[in-house]
Amino acid sequence: MASLPLPIPAITSPHASKPHDAPVPAPRPAASSVHAVLASLSQHAHAHDDALHDAFALVARAEGQPSPAAAVSVGPEVYASLLQCCVAAGSLRAGRQVHAALVKRGPYYSRNAYVGTKLAVFYARCGALADAERAFEALPERDRNAFAWAAVIGLWSRAGLHARALDGFAAMLGAGVPADNFVVPTVLKACAGLGLFRAGRAVHGYAWKAGIAECVYVMSSLVDFYGKCGQVEDARGVFDAMPERTVVSWNSMLMAYIHNSRIDEAVELFYEMRVEGVLPTRVSVVSLLSASAELEAVDEGRQGHAVAVSSGLEIDVILGSSMINFYCKVGLVEAAEAVFEQMEERDIVTWNLMIAGYFQDGQVDKAFDACRRMLETNLKFDCVTLASIIMACVKSCSMMVGTAAHGYAVRNDLDSDRAVACGLIDLYASTGRIEHARRVFNAMSQRDLVLWKVMISTYADRGMSSEALKLLDHMQLEGMSPTAACWDSVISAFLRNGQFEDALEVFKQMLLTRTRPNLRTWSLLISGLSKTGMHQEFTKVAC
DNA sequence: GTGCGAGTAC
């Protein structure tokens, strides 16, 4: 934003400081009209610097009067309106200056409840977490209304601080402030983020009792919440019951289907939406593209692209990336490339998608060329880039590049990422350097089930059955419960080595840990033991 | 005030 000639907290206006520039001084606005004009400006200020500029000038002129009466007439509510203008224009810098002016004017201004609320909301909307918290905490408890609570809880939930958002919600209710339709959507977002289905359902019940369950914002959030919790039918139930729908309601339902792998229904809903005359937004198209990518539905995805173009949607970094993802998934790498080259802005995700697309298509040179171009734009590789480079090295057995990637990972603290570590384990194991692979595994401070499984099957796949078993025991000593897939790996290693009794012994242990054998386990054992004359033992164990 | 894109394995 261009530098604003902000006169606040100065008492003089820019005109007053250079009187020769303003031969005809602007008349002082009638005190009563300042507030009304600001309110109207804030409505139209949407990111228009001009409106913000006018608002500041107006206050400056009103403030610039030497008479005490004029100063009093510029009351706290004027500053609140000014903050509203800053919110509308999205200017953190301008709002900070208003804050400074308030402090300078004294406690009558800075401790005003209305202004304090606006200040907290202003900082929250600008995403200034610490400032918003401070402004909120500065409000006396009795002045914290639903509006202020909603602003700060929403800020936490948007920042991904879900637990904090829920604590805030509990505190809000504890303080006797009833929840309204503004705070409920952000609380539902926090519940979905934490996977707290029961809590979210309780919020739904609360919304009913509070009479806000029919609000379109609340209902759209409920659709989203139920979808994220895997309750597609509940999501659809809310969606069908909506007295009115916005495009966000449709998009939430679309995503509910997609997140739950009900892609056909998502595609159908997209068409239904068009039939209803609802104009798709970027989010709708992104959803359709994501469904098409997963389904490898070439026609639908292409249509998504066409809809985006015909609707005049700006192909921003997210929409463009979704297109690249779709085209790469269906093997139309050239189409992905065309989108990629046309994009004005690309971020790390865009680059990673294009790089992975080239690698998967076997266009290794282009992939590395894209890596180089990416570094030239001052972006660094992240764990996704590296995982995809390492994967390509495993495929092509390029130990040299793989080792370089390992070095890059270590230097940039990316070697603790699971996908990178799994890739490296594979890389070293594929060239027989099992001890290198083990070193990568040992260096991981956080080992999840997948990592254990990878290391165990690395041993198992190479017939190192006792090493695999040792690791399986080790895993349990560390308090992890091996999945059926881990047990399968070890059992199959013993079977392949002809160590049938050991295989059966491992199977016994598996049953003791109450891990349910899956189809693979059974077929492994049945075909492995069928020729050994060990049916009886097997039957005894199995039954 | 509600909705969005990436990794072989979860």
UniProtKB/TrEMBL annotation:
It holds the Pfam family PPR_1. GO terms for biological process: RNA modification. Residues 1-29 are annotated as: Disordered. PPR repeats lie at residues 246-280, 316-346, 347-381, 448-482, 483-517. The keyword rRNA-binding does not apply. Keywords: Repeat, Transit peptide. The keyword Transit peptide applies. One of its GO terms (molecular function) is RNA binding. Gene3D superfamilies: Tetratricopeptide repeat domain. InterPro entries: PPR_At4g14850-like_plant (IPR046960), PPR_rpt (IPR002885), TPR-like_helical_dom_sf (IPR011990). This is Pentacotripeptide-repeat region of PRORP domain-containing protein. It comes from Setaria italica.
